[in-house]
């Protein structure tokens, strides 16, 4: 009987020992998994915390003059990934809306973010400002009454500073132009020169940078029969030439614009201006190539 009790006690000790060991291993496993998960999440979230509104207030005054700035907005985008291999790190950053006026007194606004260098952001602000300028000075001024309000949302205006290579048809030429234009944009960023967007004339902008503007208007029509229908086509051709002359006269010898106007009947009234000279219609790609070639020895 005594031997049986001893054997039972030993068995009980072994069982208790096994239970304790298993419990510790389980706890360690849970702790390690939790720590790894936390570390992984933190390593894939990028934080941008600088207060650009305060840090660059003097530079912003030089750029925008008497500007006002809205409330700081905190933005957050979580990490994205899928089984296809796509991955994007999470990001947390801040934005501010800046309100100002251009040299003509026209009210404008732009968004500043602390994710990007302010000396690089200003070129995006410049592009957006020129788009708005051509919208109110030429598109709305000369074609506004020939479009239904709902059709104006299909108008397309773009502006690029130095970035004028994308439509080149020959791949090797495309690659070369891309490298040259990228190097030019990088050189602008390194200079850290400020652009006085609120006081600079638009003709001075075109004199200072290789800028292209592309305008496409759709569904232009003879609303209310203001123009005799038999004269509509000649009227639109004359208007195209007149607007092109106005652009050259106002914006100077370095303005570059592709101007395309389509009526509801799909009639095409188009022209291009390269360094202040009217060139007539050009297909996408040829316009950019012409502008790029015109600035060889000037900017690249």
What number of domains? 2
Name the helix and strand elements from N-terminus to C-terminus, one letter apiece.
Answer: HEHHEEEEEEHEHHEHEEEH
Shape: globular
Helical proportion, percent range: 40-55%
**Unreliable sequence segments:** 2-6, 18-42
Number of helices: 8
Cα(first) to Cα(last) distance is: 102 Å
Cα-atom radius of gyration: 31 Å
- How many strand units? 12
Tell me what the structure shows.
By secondary structure, this protein is an alpha+beta fold. Strand 11 (268-274) and strand 12 form a beta hairpin. It starts with a helix and ends in a 6-residue tail after the last helix. Mean pLDDT is 84; it is low at 2-6 and 18-42. The strands form three sheets. Strands 1, 2, 3, 6 and 7 form a five-stranded mixed sheet that branches. A five-stranded mixed sheet has the order 8-9-10-11-12, sandwiched between helices. It is 46% helix and 22% strand. It is globular and about 65 Å long. It has two domains: 45-116, no CATH class; 117-300, no CATH class.
């Amino acid at each position: 009987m005594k031997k049986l009790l001893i054997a039972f006690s030993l068995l009980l000790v072994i069982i208790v020992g096994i239970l304790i060991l298993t419990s510790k291993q389980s706890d360690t496993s849970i702790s390690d998994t939790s720590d790894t998960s936390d570390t992984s999440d933190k390593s894939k979230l990028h934080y941008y915390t600088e207060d650009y509104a305060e840090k660059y207030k003097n530079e912003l005054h030089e750029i925008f003059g008497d500007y006002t700035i809205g409330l700081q907005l905190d933005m957050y985008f979580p990490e994205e990934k899928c089984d296809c291999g796509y991955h994007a790190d999470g990001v947390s950053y801040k934005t501010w809306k800046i309100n100002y006026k251009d040299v003509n007194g026209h009210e404008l606004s732009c968004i500043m973010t602390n994710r990007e260098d302010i000396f690089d952001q200003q070129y995006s602000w410049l592009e957006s400002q020129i788009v708005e300028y051509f919208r109110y000075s030429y598109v709305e001024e000369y074609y506004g009454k020939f479009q239904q309000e709902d059709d104006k949302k299909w108008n397309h205006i773009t502006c690029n500073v130095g970035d004028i290579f994308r439509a080149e048809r020959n791949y090797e030429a495309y690659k070369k132009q891309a490298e040259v234009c990228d190097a030019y944009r990088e050189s602008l960023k390194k200079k850290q020169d400020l652009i006085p967007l609120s006081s600079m004339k638009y003709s001075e902008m075109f004199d200072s940078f290789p800028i292209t503007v592309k305008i496409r208007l759709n569904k232009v029509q003879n609303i209310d029969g203001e123009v005799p229908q038999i004269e509509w086509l000649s009227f639109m051709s004359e208007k195209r030439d007149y607007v092109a002359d106005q652009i050259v006269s106002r914006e100077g010898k370095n303005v570059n614009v592709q101007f395309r106007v389509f009526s509801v009947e799909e009639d095409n009234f188009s022209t291009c201006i390269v360094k202040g000279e009217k060139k007539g219609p050009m297909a996408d790609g040829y316009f950019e190539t012409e502008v790029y070639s015109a600035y060889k020895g000037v900017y690249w």
